[in-house]
Amino acid sequence: MSKPLRLEDILINNVWDVDYEPHIKVDSEKCVNCDSKACINLCPAGCFTPLGSKIVFSYEGCLECGACRVICSNGAVYWNYPVSGKGIHYRFG
Ligand code: SF4
Question: Which pTM value belongs to this model?
Answer without folding.
Answer: 0.89
